[in-house]
Amino acid sequence: MLSIKALSVVCTSTLLLGSGVNEIADASSFNAAPVFDNIASYTTTITGDNNLADIYYPNPTDLKTSNYSFPVALLLQGGLVDKSNYSNYAQQVASYEFVVVVPNSKRTDPTYGDEALLPQTSQIDTALQQIVVENKNASSPIVGKLDTEKVGLLGHSLGSVVGLSAIGDLCLVTQTPTCPGSFSRPKQILAGAFFGGNLRDINDVYPTINNDGIPVALLQGDRDGRALPIRASLTYNKIKNPPAALINIEGANHFSITNTNNPAGAIPDPVDATLNQDVAIETIARWSGLFLRASILNDKDAFNYVYFTGDAVDTNVTVESKRVPESTSIAPLGILFAYFTMTQLRKRINKSKR
C-alpha cells in the first residue's frame, strides 16, 4: 500500500495532457495569497435601472500609469441583503485582480413590498452596460482599466439562483420571481461562482444547467440552514459541462459570506456558524477569486489549486467532486485516483489533529 508521501511524489510529478493544464503542482508550492494589497472603492448609479452599485478595484500605485485591464466580477446580492453587507468579501475577491461590481436591485414584490432588495436577471444586462460607461468615463477612477468582454458572475442565495439561471440561459418559475420578461445570456459571461444557492423551480424540480462549457463553482456551507447542502449537491449534478466544482466549507452557514451573521433585513439562518466570520469570508473569497482566475485568466496554478490541490491544504474545505475539461480525460486515471486518495487521507489526518 502506498504511503501518503509516496502518493504525493507520484501525483505531483504527473503530467496532465490537455489544453492549458500541464501538471498537478504540489499545493505547498503555490501561493494562494491575493495579487493586490490595496483595494479602493466608489459608488455609482446604474443608469439602466437607477440602482446604486459599489465598485471595488485593485489600486496599485501605478494604476494610472500602467496598462492594466481588469476583468469584471458582478456580485448578485442575496434576497433582502443590502450591497454594503458584502464589502469585506468583495474587497478580497477584487484583490485577486478583478473589478467587483455589487449593485442593489430594488423592485416591487407581492411578498416583500416596494423597493425590496431582490436580484433579477435583467440587472445583469444593466450592470454590463454600466461597466462600459465606467470604462469610458474620464471622471471614473477605473477609466480605461476594464476588460469589459471578460465577466464572471458571483452570487449569494437568491443571487446564486439568478446567476445560475443566467449561465443556464433559463427563466424558471420560482417562489421569488427572478426572471421578469425574457433573458438571453450575455456573451461576456465566462464563469460563475455562487455561495449558498441552488437552482430548482416552484415544483422542486432541478433543471439541467446547460452551461455550454462555462465553468461553474458552487460554494456551500455545511451548516447552511436556508440553502441546504443537499440542494447544492443536486444542483451540481445538473451542471451539464465541465469544468465544475462543488466546494464544501466546514462550519459555514448561509451568511458566512456577509460582513456579519444574519445582517439586518435578511431572513435569518436558524443554524449558527462554527467557523469564525472573518475566516469564512476569507475562505469563500479566496476560492471564489482563484476559481475566477482559473476560468477567466487561464491561470494554471489557480486551476490546479481549485480542482486538485487546494482542499489538501485548506482544512476548512473539501471539494467532494472534481471535474476537468474533457480534453484532459486522457490523463492516467489511476494516478488521478491516487491523488484523490492522498487528498482525502491528508484531510482526515488534519481534522484528527484539531
Descriptive report:
The chain is α/β, with parallel strands linked by helices and 354 residues long. 30% of the residues lie in helices and 21% in strands. It is built from 8 helices and 11 strands. It has helices at 4-12, 87-94, 122-136, 158-167, 229-236, 277-296, 300-313, 333-353, and strands spanning 39-46, 51-58, 70-76, 99-103, 106-109, 113-117, 146-156, 189-195, 216-221, 244-249, 317-322. The strands form 2 sheets. It has a 9-stranded mixed sheet with strand order 1-2-4-3-7-8-9-10-11, with helices on both faces. It has a two-stranded antiparallel sheet with strand order 5-6. Helix 5 links the parallel strand 9 (216-221) and strand 10. Helix 2 (87-94) packs parallel to helix 6 (277-296) and helix 7 crosses helix 8. The longest helix has 21 residues, at 333-353. The radius of gyration is 20 Å and the shape is globular. The two termini are 26 Å apart.
Q: What key attributes describe this structure?
A:
alpha/beta, nine-stranded mixed β-sheet, disordered N terminus
Topology diagram in text:
Layout (H helix, E strand, L loop, with lengths): L3 H9 L26 E8 L4 E8 L11 E7 L10 H8 L4 E5 L2 E4 L3 E5 L4 H15 L9 E11 L1 H10 L21 E7 L20 E6 L7 H8 L7 E6 L27 H20 L3 H14 L3 E6 L10 H21 L1
Parallel strand pairs: 3-4, 3-7, 7-8, 8-9, 9-10
Antiparallel strand pairs: 1-2, 2-4, 5-6, 10-11
Summarize the structure.
The protein has 354 residues and is α/β, with parallel strands linked by helices. The chain contains eight helices and eleven strands. The chain has helices at residues 4-12, 87-94, 122-136, 158-167, 229-236, 277-296, 300-313, 333-353; strands at 39-46, 51-58, 70-76, 99-103, 106-109, 113-117, 146-156, 189-195, 216-221, 244-249, 317-322.
